[in-house]
Amino acid sequence: LTISSGGKTFSTTGWKIGWICGPQPLVRAAMKAKQFLTYVNGAPFQPAIAVGLRLGDDYFAGLAERLQNARDALALGLGEAGFTVYPSEATYFTTVDITPVRPDGDGMALCEQLPHLIGVVAVPNQVFYVDPARGRNLVRFACCKRPEVIDEAVERLGRLKEVLA
């Protein structure tokens, strides 16, 4: 199955319009489950997403290239800043282990400090865990930003160890 959304593909976060492509029996099973997950959807937005889905291959190739470039630049910068970077292939986020930069591994505390210390925002992965302690040392950074935003974030992250010292 391929599962996607207009929020990611067309920068329409909040519209909550998505789709599933794949073998009919699997899609049908997903539709049965979906009917119990949400009560209403963004029906007025569906025609706009349909227009977007008809864009040429060049749009989607360009989008993929921009996202890959941003991901690679961010991952490189995070690694240079001292974080252990976990490679990502199909997400808007790059996950890092913060322990080399913050030995206590407190991702929640680091994420609360980052905006004040260097003006960069991250999300602690532990909020996505049933057992938050398992993701305590993991933090994710969004790579779906303009190149100049990624570059500025990387430059600021490069100063983080000095600021934390």
Characterization of this structure:
The protein is of the alpha+beta class and 165 residues long. It has two domains: 2-55, no CATH class; 63-164, Aspartate Aminotransferase, domain 1 (Alpha-Beta Complex), CATH 3.90.1150.10. It has seven helices and six strands. The protein has a four-stranded antiparallel β-sheet, covered by helices on one side. Helix 4 packs parallel to helix 6 (147-157). The radius of gyration is 19 Å and the shape is globular.
Share of β-strand residues: 5-15%
Number of domains: 2
Helix content: 40-55%
- N-to-C CA distance: 47 Å
What are the secondary-structure elements, in order, as H or E?
A: EHEHHHEEHEEHH
- The CATH class assignment of the largest domain is Alpha Beta
Q: How would you state the average pLDDT, rounded?
A: 93
Counted beta strands: 6
Q: Overall 3D geometry?
A: globular
Poorly predicted sequence stretches spanning 5 or more consecutive residues:
none
Radius of gyration based on Cα positions: 19 Å
Q: What is the CATH homologous superfamily assignment of the largest domain?
A: Aspartate Aminotransferase, domain 1
Major beta sheet summary: 4 strands, antiparallel
By DSSP (H or I, 4+ residues per run), the number of helices equals 7
CATH architecture type of the largest domain: Alpha-Beta Complex
CATH topology of the largest domain: Aspartate Aminotransferase, domain 1
Output the strand order for the largest sheet: 3-4-6-5
Helices and strands: which structural class?
alpha+beta
